[in-house]
Design a protein that fits this description.
By secondary structure, the chain is α+β, with helices and mostly antiparallel strands. Helices cover about 50% and strands about 10% of the residues. It is built from 14 helices and 10 strands. The protein has helices at about 1-20, 35-80, 85-110, 140-150, 150-180, 195-200, 275-285, 295-315, 385-400, 405-425, 430-445, 455-470, 490-495, 510-535; strands at about 185, 190-195, 210-215, 220-225, 240-245, 320-325, 335-340, 345-355, 360, 380-385. Strands 1, 2, 3, 4, 5, 6, 7, 8, 9 and 10 form a 10-stranded mixed sheet that branches. A hairpin with a 5-residue loop joins strand 6 and strand 7. The longest helix has about 45 residues, at about 35-80. It is elongated. About 30% of the residues are buried.
């Protein structure tokens, strides 16, 4: 505070000089007679100057404090001066995150809304980008191709189906006889499903597919949990469920020990540790996953294969052929081999009926060429194969005579099988081709499926598949579809569910998606050449064997 002190001293000196009587001429000054009064006034003036000096010192201190605060603020501002490059980076990152969230919301919104698959006229400008410069065979060529390469296979299907059905019934009857009725699962009658029973199979071997429902022995029953029930099945397991084995005369809350805390001196005779261990062992005997009550698909597969082997050993003396397993990782992929070398394949798949519907839980789904992550053996896939067959039979009755819907699907399956034999297996399967056909059958007028429109409908299905692949979205035909006929009897819980996107795994499996797109475009380019080649070189009445592919 040196400046304040000097200023104060100078102010006192100036005041003293101004008020000193000797500095003024005598004629202008009157010397007071009372000296004490003068001294008193000087003291008062001195006191007022002192107070003024203190006031000035306070004001100077406040001013200095404000100056220091402003200097600190300037230093802080200089310290946090932004870097333009850093600011631009964070801004760009924020924009990327924002648009990513918008895209994820859009995908979720689209997956949760059933799409109208009808092809509008104004969409033709954006559809069919791969069709530019591509000319499909005309109607005459397609009909000629169908008669030479496909129609004869259809007649062979009927003969194989009759043979396999009789043998499968005999084999399952023997299986029931070798099983313990008090401990083993109860096997019911088989149901034929798939392309062989929908009359559009063209690929060899002409394998029949059967589902074989089974139920637990008394007094046990099945209880079901699906991704729709909001229980233990996670939401990302769309299309899957779990099967719990319980006693029909007892539930988890039937005992008082589940509702009341027992004292230390009380023991529940039903749920003691010893009985619980015995209960767990019994659950494993009932093909449950270890230390749980959930049905294990792997144990079911092992049990079914062992039971089939015992059944064949019991009846093998009646037949003049051999029976073997063609695939060990499938519960009942069997092959009949005659002495002449001819073989006939068929599949028996153990399933569990969902409630009182024709929806079934299946542990090993033969149509899933596009897997969505790893799946536990206690997660069972829900198959609508019976409803698919029923819907095709339903629409066939209302379509024109000799309609082209099955012919179109057979040609697509033929082209797809030939392309896969050239480029290798694909994530796009016959099941996806059939799903696309079912969607178009629902949206197109029945008159559009007359035999004269085979070429046009073939183009529609190919364009529909191209659009679905580009958008990575192909909805399951039954789940979330509220426009189905009531005559089918689809459970309401599945019709009201959110649509299930069969192409959802493509979002993460980029390599599989690129490979599938390449295969599809290559198939489009080869379509005309393949049809023309097989039409010219295949003699009338002879079908061309194709490599085996899952349904």
């Amino acid at each position: 505070m040196p400046a304040v002190g000097i200023f104060s001293v100078c102010l006192v000196v100036i005041a003293a000089i101004v008020n000193h009587p000797l500095l003024f001429p005598k004629e202008n000054v009157t010397v007071p007679e009372n000296t004490e009064e003068i001294i008193q006034k000087m003291k008062e003036r001195e006191e007022s100057l002192r107070l003024e000096r203190l006031k000035l010192e306070q004001e100077m201190a406040v001013q200095e404090t404000l100056t220091k605060s402003s200097e600190k603020a300037v230093e802080s501002e200089e310290q946090y001066t932004y870097d333009p490059l850093s600011w631009n980076f964070w801004t760009a990152l924020s924009l990327v995150v924002f648009f990513l969230l918008i895209e994820l919301w859009r995908q979720d919104y689209q997956e949760g809304t059933w799409q109208d698959y009808s092809i509008e006229e104004d969409e033709n400008a954006v559809l069919g980008k791969a069709f530019k410069g591509l000319v499909l065979p005309d109607k005459v060529t397609l009909v000629n191709f169908y008669e030479r390469c496909i129609q004869t296979v259809t007649s062979e299907i009927a003969r194989n189906r009759e043979l396999v059905e009789g043998f499968a019934d005999d084999l399952l009857e023997a299986l029931r006889s070798v099983c313990n009725r008090d401990a083993d699962m109860e096997v019911e009658e088989s149901i034929g499903v798939g392309s062989m029973y929908e009359n559009w199979r063209v690929q060899k071997p002409l394998a029949c597919d059967f589902i074989v429902p089974f139920s637990p022995p008394e007094p046990y029953c099945f209880k079901f949990e699906t991704w729709l029930s909001g229980e233990s099945v996670p939401p990302d397991k769309q299309g899957y469920g779990m099967i719990k084995i319980c006693r029909a005369d007892e539930n988890s809350t039937g005992c008082i020990c589940d509702k009341t805390k027992l004292g230390e001196d009380l023991l529940c005779l039903l749920h003691s540790k010893k009985n619980q261990a015995r209960h767990n062992n019994h659950m494993e005997d009932l093909l449950c996953y270890k230390d749980s009550q959930y049905l294990d698909g792997d144990q079911v597969m092992t049990w079914f294969q062992v039971a089939l082997t015992k059944a064949w050993n019991k009846i093998s003396h009646k037949y003049e052929f051999n029976l073997t397993f063609s695939l060990l990782d499938s519960p009942g992929a069997l092959k009949i081999k005659f002495r002449s070398g001819k073989t006939i394949a068929f599949n028996l798949s153990p399933v569990v009926q969902f409630a009182d519907s024709d929806v079934y839980f299946i542990s090993h789904f033969p149509c899933s060429g596009l897997a969505d992550g790893s799946t536990s053996s206690i997660h069972w896939f829900l198959t609508f194969a019976v409803y698919e067959k029923r819907y095709i039979q339903f629409v066939s009755k209302i379509l024109p005579v000799n309609s082209c819907h099955l012919s179109c699907l057979q040609i697509l399956s033929f082209l797809h099988g030939k392309q896969c034999s050239l480029t290798g297996p694909s994530s796009l399967t016959n099941y996806h081709l059939k799903t696309a056909m079912l969607h178009l059958l629902q949206t197109h007028p029945t008159s559009n499926w007359a035999s004269d429109f085979l070429e046009a409908r073939l183009q529609d299905v190919l364009k529909f598949l191209e659009k679905s692949l580009q958008e990575k979205r192909l909805y399951h035909f039954f789940i979330g579809n509220r426009n189905l006929p009531e005559e089918l009897g689809i459970p309401v819980v599945f019709q009201k569910a959110e649509p299930m996107n069969l192409f959802r795994p493509f979002v993460l499996q980029r390599s599989a998606y690129r490979k599938t797109m390449d295969m599809f475009h290559e198939m489009l380019r080869n379509t005309a050449a393949l049809i023309n080649e097989y039409t010219v070189h295949v003699p009338m009445g002879r079908a061309t064997p194709l490599n085996k592919e899952p349904l």
